[in-house]
Amino acid sequence: MAALGKLSAGLAHELNNPAAAARRAVVRLREVTLEAQLLALEHAWRLSPGQRGALTRLLGEAITGGVEALDPLSQSDRDEEVADWLEERGFSEAWDLAPILGAAGVDAGRLEELAAELGNDQSLAGVLEWLASTLESADLSDEVGSSVARISDLVGAMKVTRLWTRQRTPKPTCEKAWKTRSPSSTTS
Predict the structure, then answer these.
(1) Cβ–Cβ under 8 Å, residues 14 and 154
(2) Is residue 69 part of a domain?
(3) Domains in the chain: how many in total?
(4) Is the pLDDT assigned to residue 43 strictly greater than 80?
(5) To bridge 101 with a disulfide, which of 69, 106, 120, 150 should be the other Cys (CB 3.0-4.6 Å)?
(6) How far is CA 142 from CA 26, 70, 74, in A?
(7) Residue 160 lies in a domain
(8) Would 137 be classed as within a structural domain?
(9) Which domain does 22 fall in, by range?
(10) Could you give phi then psi for residue 91, rounded to 5 degrees?
């Protein structure tokens, strides 16, 4: 029974970590999705069809572009480069936006291209806030997916272990059970 208690406690701990991560991500995902939708409504009318196309291409590149994984120092350098670019243009939330944009592979050069396509600094501010919210939303969705997949893997492993244990445990036959309960078997 002690082993069973240890096993259930360990399993509960292993399930709790990804479940808690999924719960946190879902709460934040709801906030970010709403924020992205509100920003889209607020700024969409300011953009021409060509500007919306440029933004759509950038979003597509950032989400599906297969961003190369950087070591932590290089990622920090990219984030700082993006934050510096944003601060030079008067963004008050540069340090909030920079890690999200940098993690998606958006660097200062790509931001410069987008700024040239959009032209208006007011449009650029709203567009980058929307882009960051949308990218964060996609990232949170991935986090929920990986957390739920981990829970599913753990439950699957427990099922396999349970089946394996059942197959390896010999089932008592009626004759064996009778002999162990019989008073004559204890006197021999």
Answers:
(1) yes
(2) yes
(3) 1
(4) no
(5) 106
(6) 11, 18, 23
(7) no
(8) yes
(9) 17-142
(10) -75, 125
